[in-house]
Amino acid sequence: MNTSPILTLKQVRKTYLSGDQPLEVLKGIDLEVYAGEFVLIYGKSGSGKTTLINMIAGIDPLTAGEVWFDGVNVHRLNENQRARWRGRNVGIVYQSFYLMPTLSLLHNVMLPMDVCGLYHPRRSPQRALELLRMVELEEHAHKLPSAISGGQQQRVAIARALANDPPLIIADEPTGRLDSITAATILEIFLNLARQGKTILMVTHDLSLMPLASRCFRLEGGLVHSCPVEERTPAP
Ligand SMILES: Nc1ncnc2c1ncn2[C@@H]1O[C@H](COP(=O)(O)OP(=O)(O)OP(=O)(O)O)[C@@H](O)[C@H]1O
Protein backbone atom coordinates (compact mmCIF):
# COMPACT_ATOMS: atom_id res chain seq x y z
CA MET A 1 0.00 0.00 0.00
CA ASN A 2 1.20 3.55 -0.74
CA THR A 3 2.27 5.48 2.33
CA SER A 4 0.34 8.62 1.46
CA PRO A 5 -3.42 8.61 0.92
CA ILE A 6 -4.83 9.38 -2.52
CA LEU A 7 -7.94 10.92 -0.94
CA THR A 8 -7.99 13.01 2.22
CA LEU A 9 -10.96 14.70 3.83
CA LYS A 10 -10.18 17.31 6.46
CA GLN A 11 -12.98 18.44 8.75
CA VAL A 12 -15.59 18.31 5.98
CA ARG A 13 -18.84 19.94 7.02
CA LYS A 14 -22.11 20.32 5.15
CA THR A 15 -25.14 22.21 6.35
CA TYR A 16 -28.28 22.49 4.21
CA LEU A 17 -30.87 25.14 4.68
CA SER A 18 -34.15 23.31 5.10
CA GLY A 19 -36.76 26.07 4.99
CA ASP A 20 -35.13 28.62 7.27
CA GLN A 21 -33.68 25.94 9.55
CA PRO A 22 -30.07 24.81 9.11
CA LEU A 23 -29.65 21.03 8.81
CA GLU A 24 -26.12 20.01 9.76
CA VAL A 25 -25.59 16.73 7.89
CA LEU A 26 -21.77 16.37 7.97
CA LYS A 27 -20.18 17.63 11.18
CA GLY A 28 -16.44 17.49 10.54
CA ILE A 29 -15.45 14.37 8.59
CA ASP A 30 -11.81 13.30 8.58
CA LEU A 31 -10.98 10.41 6.26
CA GLU A 32 -7.95 9.02 4.45
CA VAL A 33 -8.23 6.52 1.60
CA TYR A 34 -5.30 4.83 -0.13
CA ALA A 35 -4.98 3.93 -3.82
CA GLY A 36 -6.41 0.49 -4.58
CA GLU A 37 -8.56 0.33 -1.46
CA PHE A 38 -12.18 -0.79 -1.60
CA VAL A 39 -13.78 1.37 1.06
CA LEU A 40 -17.35 0.89 2.15
CA ILE A 41 -19.34 3.64 3.82
CA TYR A 42 -22.59 2.52 5.34
CA GLY A 43 -25.25 4.27 7.30
CA LYS A 44 -28.97 4.55 7.72
CA SER A 45 -31.18 6.33 5.24
CA GLY A 46 -30.71 10.07 5.72
CA SER A 47 -27.35 9.72 7.50
CA GLY A 48 -25.65 11.75 4.76
CA LYS A 49 -24.00 9.12 2.53
CA THR A 50 -24.96 10.75 -0.77
CA THR A 51 -24.09 14.17 0.64
CA LEU A 52 -20.64 12.86 1.55
CA ILE A 53 -19.89 11.45 -1.89
CA ASN A 54 -21.19 14.62 -3.52
CA MET A 55 -18.60 16.52 -1.46
CA ILE A 56 -15.84 14.08 -2.43
CA ALA A 57 -16.70 14.28 -6.14
CA GLY A 58 -16.99 18.06 -5.95
CA ILE A 59 -20.61 17.95 -7.13
CA ASP A 60 -21.92 20.15 -4.29
CA PRO A 61 -20.07 22.90 -2.41
CA LEU A 62 -18.79 22.26 1.10
CA THR A 63 -19.83 24.36 4.06
CA ALA A 64 -16.31 24.00 5.52
CA GLY A 65 -13.26 21.76 5.30
CA GLU A 66 -11.11 20.39 2.49
CA VAL A 67 -11.14 17.46 0.08
CA TRP A 68 -7.74 16.57 -1.36
CA PHE A 69 -7.37 14.09 -4.20
CA ASP A 70 -3.93 13.19 -5.50
CA GLY A 71 -2.51 16.60 -4.55
CA VAL A 72 -5.52 18.62 -5.75
CA ASN A 73 -7.59 20.68 -3.30
CA VAL A 74 -10.88 19.87 -5.06
CA HIS A 75 -13.07 22.65 -3.67
CA ARG A 76 -10.46 25.31 -4.41
CA LEU A 77 -11.01 24.70 -8.14
CA ASN A 78 -13.55 26.91 -9.89
CA GLU A 79 -16.69 25.27 -11.29
CA ASN A 80 -15.25 24.63 -14.77
CA GLN A 81 -11.96 23.31 -13.41
CA ARG A 82 -13.84 21.07 -10.97
CA ALA A 83 -16.06 19.62 -13.72
CA ARG A 84 -12.97 18.94 -15.81
CA TRP A 85 -11.15 17.40 -12.83
CA ARG A 86 -14.16 15.20 -12.04
CA GLY A 87 -14.52 14.02 -15.63
CA ARG A 88 -10.97 12.72 -15.66
CA ASN A 89 -10.55 11.51 -12.08
CA VAL A 90 -13.88 10.23 -10.83
CA GLY A 91 -16.22 7.64 -12.30
CA ILE A 92 -19.62 7.59 -10.62
CA VAL A 93 -22.08 4.69 -10.60
CA TYR A 94 -25.57 5.33 -9.25
CA GLN A 95 -28.30 3.01 -8.01
CA SER A 96 -30.54 4.08 -10.91
CA PHE A 97 -27.95 3.60 -13.69
CA TYR A 98 -28.89 6.89 -15.47
CA LEU A 99 -28.11 5.69 -18.98
CA MET A 100 -29.22 7.92 -21.86
CA PRO A 101 -32.29 6.11 -23.23
CA THR A 102 -31.87 7.28 -26.84
CA LEU A 103 -28.18 6.34 -27.14
CA SER A 104 -26.79 2.88 -27.85
CA LEU A 105 -24.75 1.20 -25.13
CA LEU A 106 -21.60 2.03 -27.10
CA HIS A 107 -22.53 5.73 -27.27
CA ASN A 108 -23.48 5.76 -23.60
CA VAL A 109 -20.00 4.50 -22.72
CA MET A 110 -18.36 7.09 -24.99
CA LEU A 111 -20.35 9.97 -23.51
CA PRO A 112 -17.82 10.92 -20.76
CA MET A 113 -15.04 11.00 -23.37
CA ASP A 114 -17.08 13.46 -25.42
CA VAL A 115 -18.05 15.59 -22.41
CA CYS A 116 -14.39 15.89 -21.36
CA GLY A 117 -13.10 16.68 -24.84
CA LEU A 118 -11.27 13.34 -24.96
CA TYR A 119 -13.27 11.86 -27.84
CA HIS A 120 -11.20 10.37 -30.67
CA PRO A 121 -13.04 8.99 -33.73
CA ARG A 122 -11.01 5.76 -33.87
CA ARG A 123 -9.73 5.19 -30.35
CA SER A 124 -12.92 6.07 -28.44
CA PRO A 125 -15.21 3.43 -30.05
CA GLN A 126 -12.40 0.90 -29.59
CA ARG A 127 -12.06 1.71 -25.91
CA ALA A 128 -15.82 1.69 -25.38
CA LEU A 129 -16.00 -1.75 -27.00
CA GLU A 130 -13.15 -2.99 -24.78
CA LEU A 131 -15.00 -1.75 -21.70
CA LEU A 132 -18.23 -3.39 -22.86
CA ARG A 133 -16.23 -6.60 -23.38
CA MET A 134 -14.91 -6.31 -19.82
CA VAL A 135 -18.48 -6.28 -18.50
CA GLU A 136 -19.43 -9.03 -21.00
CA LEU A 137 -21.79 -6.91 -23.07
CA GLU A 138 -19.80 -6.37 -26.24
CA GLU A 139 -22.33 -8.19 -28.42
CA HIS A 140 -25.07 -5.81 -27.21
CA ALA A 141 -23.05 -2.66 -28.02
CA HIS A 142 -25.53 -1.31 -30.57
CA LYS A 143 -28.68 -1.91 -28.55
CA LEU A 144 -30.55 0.74 -26.59
CA PRO A 145 -30.60 0.54 -22.76
CA SER A 146 -34.31 -0.39 -22.85
CA ALA A 147 -33.40 -3.65 -24.63
CA ILE A 148 -31.28 -5.02 -21.76
CA SER A 149 -31.90 -6.00 -18.13
CA GLY A 150 -31.29 -3.87 -15.03
CA GLY A 151 -28.15 -5.81 -14.12
CA GLN A 152 -26.85 -5.38 -17.65
CA GLN A 153 -27.65 -1.66 -17.51
CA GLN A 154 -25.63 -1.38 -14.32
CA ARG A 155 -22.70 -3.11 -16.06
CA VAL A 156 -22.94 -0.52 -18.85
CA ALA A 157 -22.96 2.23 -16.20
CA ILE A 158 -19.74 0.76 -14.75
CA ALA A 159 -18.18 0.65 -18.23
CA ARG A 160 -19.21 4.29 -18.71
CA ALA A 161 -17.70 5.25 -15.34
CA LEU A 162 -14.40 3.81 -16.57
CA ALA A 163 -14.48 5.58 -19.94
CA ASN A 164 -11.79 8.14 -19.07
CA ASP A 165 -9.82 5.64 -16.95
CA PRO A 166 -10.39 7.56 -13.67
CA PRO A 167 -8.37 6.48 -10.63
CA LEU A 168 -11.39 6.86 -8.30
CA ILE A 169 -14.72 5.05 -8.70
CA ILE A 170 -17.59 6.15 -6.49
CA ALA A 171 -20.59 3.87 -6.32
CA ASP A 172 -23.80 5.01 -4.62
CA GLU A 173 -25.85 1.90 -3.71
CA PRO A 174 -24.92 0.27 -7.04
CA THR A 175 -26.67 -2.99 -6.18
CA GLY A 176 -29.70 -1.42 -4.51
CA ARG A 177 -32.08 -2.22 -7.37
CA LEU A 178 -30.68 -5.64 -8.26
CA ASP A 179 -31.45 -9.18 -7.12
CA SER A 180 -28.79 -10.87 -4.99
CA ILE A 181 -27.25 -12.99 -7.80
CA THR A 182 -26.98 -10.03 -10.18
CA ALA A 183 -25.66 -7.90 -7.31
CA ALA A 184 -22.89 -10.46 -6.70
CA THR A 185 -21.67 -10.19 -10.32
CA ILE A 186 -21.64 -6.39 -10.05
CA LEU A 187 -19.67 -6.55 -6.78
CA GLU A 188 -17.17 -8.90 -8.39
CA ILE A 189 -16.53 -6.29 -11.09
CA PHE A 190 -15.81 -3.67 -8.41
CA LEU A 191 -13.51 -6.06 -6.54
CA ASN A 192 -11.59 -6.74 -9.76
CA LEU A 193 -11.24 -3.02 -10.40
CA ALA A 194 -9.75 -2.57 -6.91
CA ARG A 195 -7.33 -5.44 -7.63
CA GLN A 196 -6.30 -3.55 -10.78
CA GLY A 197 -5.44 -0.51 -8.65
CA LYS A 198 -8.62 1.57 -8.87
CA THR A 199 -9.75 3.15 -5.62
CA ILE A 200 -13.35 2.21 -4.91
CA LEU A 201 -15.60 4.14 -2.57
CA MET A 202 -18.92 2.41 -2.18
CA VAL A 203 -21.88 3.73 -0.26
CA THR A 204 -24.49 1.29 0.95
CA HIS A 205 -26.92 0.40 3.68
CA ASP A 206 -26.33 -3.31 2.97
CA LEU A 207 -24.20 -4.65 5.84
CA SER A 208 -23.66 -7.99 4.07
CA LEU A 209 -21.11 -6.26 1.81
CA MET A 210 -18.80 -5.43 4.72
CA PRO A 211 -16.55 -8.52 4.58
CA LEU A 212 -15.67 -7.67 0.95
CA ALA A 213 -14.19 -4.26 1.70
CA SER A 214 -10.62 -3.29 2.60
CA ARG A 215 -12.07 -0.95 5.23
CA CYS A 216 -15.52 0.06 6.41
CA PHE A 217 -16.84 3.24 7.93
CA ARG A 218 -20.19 3.88 9.54
CA LEU A 219 -21.68 7.32 8.95
CA GLU A 220 -23.68 8.33 11.98
CA GLY A 221 -24.42 11.61 13.69
CA GLY A 222 -22.62 13.48 10.92
CA LEU A 223 -19.30 11.71 11.57
CA VAL A 224 -17.56 8.60 10.21
CA HIS A 225 -16.68 5.83 12.64
CA SER A 226 -14.17 3.18 11.68
CA CYS A 227 -15.74 -0.26 11.71
CA PRO A 228 -13.60 -2.82 13.60
CA VAL A 229 -12.95 -6.21 11.97
CA GLU A 230 -15.09 -8.14 14.49
CA GLU A 231 -18.10 -5.96 13.59
CA ARG A 232 -17.56 -6.89 9.95
CA THR A 233 -17.74 -10.64 10.46
CA PRO A 234 -21.32 -11.84 10.04
CA ALA A 235 -22.77 -13.63 13.09
CA PRO A 236 -22.83 -17.47 12.67
N1 LIG B 1 -30.29 19.64 -1.28
C1 LIG B 1 -30.72 19.40 -0.04
N2 LIG B 1 -31.37 20.38 0.65
C2 LIG B 1 -31.79 20.17 1.92
N3 LIG B 1 -31.63 19.00 2.59
C3 LIG B 1 -31.01 18.00 1.95
C4 LIG B 1 -30.53 18.14 0.60
N4 LIG B 1 -29.94 16.97 0.23
C5 LIG B 1 -30.07 16.15 1.28
N5 LIG B 1 -30.70 16.75 2.29
C6 LIG B 1 -30.98 16.17 3.63
O1 LIG B 1 -29.73 15.75 4.17
C7 LIG B 1 -29.89 14.52 4.89
C8 LIG B 1 -28.92 13.48 4.31
O2 LIG B 1 -29.34 13.16 2.98
P1 LIG B 1 -28.53 12.11 2.09
O3 LIG B 1 -29.28 11.96 0.80
O4 LIG B 1 -27.11 12.53 2.02
O5 LIG B 1 -28.64 10.79 2.98
P2 LIG B 1 -28.37 9.27 2.59
O6 LIG B 1 -27.64 8.66 3.74
O7 LIG B 1 -27.69 9.21 1.26
O8 LIG B 1 -29.84 8.70 2.48
P3 LIG B 1 -30.43 7.47 1.61
O9 LIG B 1 -29.73 6.22 2.10
O10 LIG B 1 -31.88 7.48 1.94
O11 LIG B 1 -30.14 7.78 0.17
C9 LIG B 1 -31.36 14.14 4.76
O12 LIG B 1 -32.01 14.57 5.92
C10 LIG B 1 -31.82 14.92 3.56
O13 LIG B 1 -33.19 15.22 3.63
TrEMBL record:
GO MF entries: ATP binding; ATP hydrolysis activity; transmembrane transporter activity
Organism: Anaerolinea thermophila (strain DSM 14523 / JCM 11388 / NBRC 100420 / UNI-1)
Family under the similarity heading: Belongs to the ABC transporter superfamily.
Keywords: ATP-binding, Nucleotide-binding, Transport
InterPro entries, sorted: AAA+_ATPase, ABC_transporter-like_ATP-bd, ABC_transporter-like_CS, ABC_transpr_LolD-like, MacB-like_ATP-bd, P-loop_NTPase
Pfam families listed in its UniProt record: ABC_tran (PF00005)
UniProt-recorded name of the protein: ABC transporter ATP-binding protein
GO CC terms: membrane protein complex; plasma membrane
Domain ABC transporter residues, every copy: 7-235
Keyword Nucleotide-binding set for record: yes
